[in-house]
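User: Sequence for Histidine--tRNA ligase below. Tokens please.
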Amino acid sequence: MTRSVKAIRGMNDILPEETYKWEFFEQTVHEWLAAYGYRNIRTPIVEQTDLFVRSIGAVTDIVEKEMYTFVDHLNGDSLTLRPEGTASCVRAVLEHNLLYASPQRLYYSGPMFRHERPQKGRYRQFHQVGVEALGYAGPDIDAEHIVMCARLWSKLGISGVRLEIGTLGSIESRALHRTRLIKYFEQYLDKLDADARRRLYSNPLRILDSKNPEMREIIAAAPRLIDDLDEDSLLHFETLQHILRKQNINFEINPQLVRGLDYYNRTVFEWVTDKLGAQGTVCAGGRYDGLIAQIGGKSAPACGFAMGVERLLALMLEYGSEITQSVPHVYIVYQGKAAGDLAWKAAEYLRDEGLKTILHCGGGSFKAQMKKADASGARFALIIGDDEVQAEEVSLKPLRDAAEQTRVELRTAVDLIKKQY
Ligand code: ATP
Ligand code: MG
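Assistant: Structure tokens for Histidine--tRNA ligase:
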């Protein structure tokens, strides 16, 4: 016997019992983005490796350990499955000169790839919806992003997602902070783990993002960037807070919030839940004013965020959010050749009338077909046999209540069905 082929570890099939939730989520997100005037951008799933190394940063978890990078053996190029969406979005915006005339409000969605240890809420292929505003200096747009997130949580029926905000200041204030951080951590060399020691001089800010519980204490007491903040960044941060307060958005300031990617400056934020164990961050983002120039464009400010779809769906389950599932209006059962001709005609007619219709396929007794009709979730069965063909009528049987079966003309059946919805 040949060995069966399985999906790759950490990369999930999403089956019909789950996909209806995804479709509900996507539809909600779609309407929400339209309400704020964001337009969709779609970029390839594979990019030149260099794009991610340059944007996310060489000394980060993603680039050092998590990227699916491979050589295209046909031409020797180093390619990478996208681990996140911002870099690709910025690349496409520059390549097509979209910032030429005006700033852009954009969004993307789709699978991302990171070679992490698979566990609940952490996968190797996972899905994000990301929002990017390019060409905006903020802080109004930073606030817009946070306010729109809050609206989405309520649309999705989830509450109790905590907002943490922080600021990374300007490049200059980060340089000053970096020196202080190195001095501080040098005092605790024996307490740093291997990653932290290796990054102490190359990227000390990354140490603050460590998830190692043994370093929690020394990280908590580390010098805070917020204390080295330049005046403009401080004003930016205060204006953001002002708008959030006016919009009744609760937040905590987390001075150690740095995010796992190097391109952020000024505003950073995370939405965190306590209901999903260690994988509690459902959405995260911030400002990245330096990235566009770094990728080779004319310098322009920007900010954005991305949310993890799997984690949000898990949270919706925790909160018992109401998710509507599409069920067929009608299931047509029939027996006999002439009845078959009528059934096919009726099925297309019902669809013309906007009714979701399943036409039974595969034959079988009426009893067996009715079982299928019942299992389909349809509200009505439309029954066509020799008697119905003779009378040029159809039998309509309600499946979800005790109402009587009736025999009527097809047009009347349509009216009766529509009256029920
Ligand atoms: P974490 O701290 O959980 O590793 P991150 O900081 O690496 O997250 P981002 O790069 O900011 O995550 O991605 C934004 C969101 O995408 C996260 O908040 C999370 O909801 C989701 N996400 C990130 N990595 C994964 C993954 N491997 N599996 C599922 N969702 C993920
Ligand atoms: Mg991560």
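The chain has two domains: 16-170+229-318, 330-419.
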